[in-house]
User: Which sequence fits this backbone?
């Protein structure tokens, strides 16, 4: 186990942060599985073990959370008593926030349809073969804008909307 | 003296039997011995029903946690956890406005570990929405949706949609004020569809307002229709991951 001292072929100069080769210079697919610095290992048990550990960690965290934090249960449903504000589940609150700003046909139908269809056809419209985010700035910009807006709207809907869907700063305190 | 020696060797042989049976049992399940060498490990993965969803071998660099963050795997684990806790909850839940809310109270106060199971189901569901969403972000930023994986990205988008719908249909089932009005607000959006709006909403609710018919519809979709659809989509999703190969490092 003296990997640190073993001579490695084509190792960069010690301590030097070698610049990455330009995108076209990289080989398309390193097909060879010959012994090199990045040799392959059997996925069992290494990968299986990691999946097991990940499941265990998530399972333990969720169990602890479930013992400590109670699920909300309000009064029994009463169709004659509309709460104000009525809020959708948090993952739809971005849409509800959008609904309060633009015409309903846009927010309730056009926008969700556009997002779902847009996401599905996106890989066919994206003609840029580069994979690194640095080499596809436009795509990254559009997607990041979508992520930022949807998260921001969901946060606004969750924490900053009170009576009659008016802006309410204290919503963040959960009151 | 001779008798003692025969007795001892007999005992030794007898002591071997449990070990032999254990080895036989192990080999009958895994078809190979302990994964002590690369060859045995690879062959075990290749010839095991549960393990063959994995590639038999994987590059060391592809094991890097900071590339996938295990998000897809965690999402799948949460789906399994939700199935198990959901089955437990089904024993105590009647999809009817007459009983649903009382069933929630029973889970809270009368059923052993009922409230923990309900909490686990609810928080896992929230977690799954987040991990599936983050998984999509990871796949986007690593450019892993590019050929030959465009189709599998589409399946993934459908899986995200199904995750949201699973969560939304489950939201109604406790039948408290929170569920009733969240689902009322949520389904009101469908009303705005250009031509069939009111009809779409009616077929979702089974009525003009959220009521008994809605609880039954959402329940059937939640425990049967959507999980089945999601499971089928997942089979295709994982199979394509396996066949298209791991997208690897940037």
Assistant:
């Amino acid at each position: 186990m003296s990997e640190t001292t073993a001579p490695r072929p084509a190792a960069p100069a010690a301590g030097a942060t070698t610049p990455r080769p330009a995108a076209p210079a990289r080989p398309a697919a390193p097909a060879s599985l010959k012994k090199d610095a990045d040799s392959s290992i059997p996925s069992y048990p290494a990968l299986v073990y990691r999946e097991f550990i990940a499941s265990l960690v998530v399972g333990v965290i969720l169990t602890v959370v479930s013992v400590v934090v109670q699920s909300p249960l309000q009064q029994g449903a009463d169709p004659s008593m509309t709460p104000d504000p009525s809020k959708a589940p948090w993952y739809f609150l971005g849409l509800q926030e959008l609904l309060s700003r633009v015409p309903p046909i846009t927010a309730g139908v056009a926008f969700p349809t556009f997002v779902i269809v847009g996401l599905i056809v996106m890989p066919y419209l994206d003609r840029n073969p580069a994979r690194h985010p640095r080499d596809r700035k436009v795509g990254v910009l559009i997607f990041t804008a979508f992520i930022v807006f949807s998260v921001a709207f969901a946060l606004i809907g969750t924490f900053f909307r009170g009576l009659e869907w008016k802006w309410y700063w204290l919503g963040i305190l959960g009151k | 003296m001779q008798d003692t020696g025969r007795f001892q060797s007999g005992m030794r042989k007898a002591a071997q039997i449990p070990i032999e049976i254990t080895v036989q049992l192990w080999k009958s399940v895994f078809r190979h011995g302990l994964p002590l060498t690369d060859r045995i490990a690879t062959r075990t993965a290749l010839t095991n029903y549960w393990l063959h969803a994995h590639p038999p071998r994987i590059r060391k660099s592809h094991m890097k946690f900071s590339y996938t963050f295990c998000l897809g795997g965690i999402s799948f684990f949460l789906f399994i956890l939700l199935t198990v806790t959901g089955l437990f909850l089904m024993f105590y839940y009647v999809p009817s406005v007459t009983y649903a809310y009382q069933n929630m109270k029973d889970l809270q106060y009368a059923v052993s570990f009922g409230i923990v199971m309900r909490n686990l189901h609810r928080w896992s569901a929230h977690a799954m929405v987040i991990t599936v969403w983050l998984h999509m972000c990871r796949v986007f930023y690593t450019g892993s949706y590019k050929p030959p994986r465009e189709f599998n990205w589409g399946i993934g988008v459908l899986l995200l949609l199904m995750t949201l719908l699973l969560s939304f249909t489950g939201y109604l089932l406790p039948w408290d004020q929170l569920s009733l009005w969240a689902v009322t607000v949520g389904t009101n959006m469908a009303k705005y569809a250009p031509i069939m709006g009111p009809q779409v909403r009616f077929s979702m609710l089974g009525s003009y307002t959220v009521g008994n018919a809605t609880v039954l519809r959402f329940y059937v979709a939640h425990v049967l229709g959507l999980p089945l659809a999601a499971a089928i989509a997942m089979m295709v999703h994982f199979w394509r991951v396996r066949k298209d190969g791991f997208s690897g490092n940037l």
About this structure: Residues 90-173 of chain A form one domain. Chain A touches chain B through 68 residues (CB under 8 Å). The first strand of chain A starts at residue 40 and ends at 42.
